[in-house]
Amino acid sequence: MSESREKLLIDPLAPFLGYQLRRVSAEAMAQLASDLSMEGLSPALATVLLMIEANPGETQASIGRSLGIKRANIAPMIAKLEDDDLIYREFADGRSFRLYCSDRTRTVTPRLMRIMKRHEDKIFGALGEGEKTQLMRMLAALRHTE
Amino acid sequence: MSESREKLLIDPLAPFLGYQLRRVSAEAMAQLASDLSMEGLSPALATVLLMIEANPGETQASIGRSLGIKRANIAPMIAKLEDDDLIYREFADGRSFRLYCSDRTRTVTPRLMRIMKRHEDKIFGALGEGEKTQLMRMLAALRHTE
DNA sequence: TATTGTTATACTCTATAACTATA
DNA sequence: TATAGTTATAGAGTATAACAATA
Fold it and tell me: Is any Cβ of chain A less than 8 angstroms from the Cβ of B13?
């Protein structure tokens, strides 16, 4: 406990909501990555996996679009999830596959959801229920205008 | 105008504030990176530069700590800013330098601040003034509990 | 011993471009 | 023509580990 008490600098970005949002998001993401590491999945991979489980039969292009991940970037993710026997593919037509999660996945996703819930409580526990509702509403409004 | 109307998938992460925060933050960051590209600076570099301008004489370790950037990662950033004649160094003691921004920087930072202000208005214009105040308060609360 | 700056290295996520095959 | 999947490649940004020099 050296209690270093770092000198506080002037922060010219402090008044910017975008800056504060980025700092909170970055910290939360690092925390979540650490919480998920025991499952061998990054936040992005876990998100893709949960999305496939919730939408069986969708193509990777469709999953990617709804997550904001480009086709070129989701291809290796899908390949990794398939290598790890977390998902499998079925032919949809000659150029696309339907994605489904495997039996093994159904033993994994409940743990993922539990980890995310605990993570959520840890990060946003500082807010009251009303505040959380307001925050969710504001974030939804921001997402729909971008 | 093909008005593709992409099929909406079920999003099991939708109820998570952390997920919504990450989506909004990622979109805002991509937008800011694009807005700043004409100045030849990334959001991170612009932030470091503004921080040095606001806190003349601080060391890079100090700047890095207050921005959450590790020493190993801020070193090449400082080197780049110095190469571009945006900052210069003075010996503080045998192992550290004091950082100062150059005259050229003072012609750049007002533009950076203007770009960021416009960006902020673009992203958060969907919120009313009261909402913005609330959001700022909540983000501050979240940052202090991490 | 702790701190500063630095280099090397690896990982995650993202971006563009180009290609094949199919609709 | 547009879309799906893939590969190659590059660029941010971050992480750890190690090192020399200094406090």
Answer: yes
- The beta strand positions in A1-146, using DSSP E, are 87-93, 96-101
Query: pLDDT for B30-60, tens place per residue?
Result: 999 999 999 999 999 999 999 999 999 999 9
pLDDT digits (tens, 9 = 90+) for A32-65: 999 999 999 999 999 999 999 999 999 999 999 9
Q: Do B119 and A18 touch (CB under 8 A)?
A: yes
Which candidate, A11, A8, A128, places its Cα nearest to that of B141? A128
A98: β partners: A90
| Helix ranges (DSSP H) in chain B | 17-36, 43-54, 60-67, 71-83, 103-124, 129-143
DSSP for residue B135: H
| Residue B22 identity (one-letter amino acid) | R
Count contacts between A and B (CB, < 8 Å): 174
A100 at the B interface (CB within 8 A)? no
B65 touches chain A (CB under 8 A): yes
Taking the C-alpha atoms of residue A81 and residue B27, their distance in angstroms, rounded to an integer, is: 25
